[in-house]
Design brief:
Two copies of one chain form a homodimer.
Chain A (H helix, E strand, L loop, with lengths): L8 H12 L3 H12 L3 E3 H7 L4 H13 L3 E6 L2 E6 L1 H15 L2
Antiparallel strand pairs in A: 1-3, 2-3
Helix pairs in contact in A: 3-4
Chain A binds a DNA duplex (30 and 30 nucleotides) through α4.
DNA sequence: TTTATATTTCGCAAAATTACGAAATAATTT
DNA sequence: AAATTATTTCGTAATTTTGCGAAATATAAA
């Protein structure tokens, strides 16, 4: 029926990143982390967001899974930071689309 | 429990756009339309993508719903074009995030 | 070693997404 | 009016996402 049975690498990668961005909680977190290239704690985030700890944890897990953030254990906290390498990759792939 | 019970307009808008981009088919379509600011037909797209007509139609509907494309009836075809106003809005909101 | 703190994992439910084929719609041609 | 063409809508099913509370984990403090 159809000729094309798969997508280009670029399209797939962009869809992966877009999916990671497709929830207000995850946008909020990434915006916060990228804004001053800082890190943050799950405990701080849960006070700023209308979701419970376990739900926040799932969103953090998703961002970790696509590689956009990484968690450093800093007992008794876990400090989450932007993975700048992956973040640059995201920025490049989006810039390509956005700048025609 | 939580202090914050809602998200900023920017965060919500970006999540909405990111969701629209969160599928290879929709990225493919938007890339195609934005690349030369052109239009395209459902019938052309279905030959380039590994999905059936009815599924493509659903993806087009979603893009229409968020306002990123618009369909002009041009019997017996429907010509889909980028909604440049909405596309600029998307670009602006993403640029803000991507350029720190 | 018990207690307290910070966070995650598990199990579950509700809702949304993705995909398809069949039927419907709408305009054109025969 | 019947047949054709391009596309959408409907009904359905499988999968994924989102959210929660309870239990588990891991470390530090008492």
């Amino acid at each position: 029926m159809n000729n094309r049975t798969n997508y280009s690498e670029d399209v797939l990668l962009m869809a992966k990143y877009a999916k990671a961005l497709a929830h207000p909680v995850r946008i909020y977190i990434l915006k916060k982390l990228s804004k001053m290239n800082s890190c943050c704690y799950s405990g701080d985030l849960v006070d700023e967001l209308p979701i419970k700890r376990s739900t926040l944890s799932q969103h953090l897990k998703e961002l970790k899974y696509v590689g956009l953030i990484q968690g450093e254990i800093e007992p008794p906290f876990i400090k989450y930071c932007l993975n700048t390498y992956e973040w640059e990759k995201l920025k490049n792939i989006f810039s390509e689309l956005l700048n025609d």
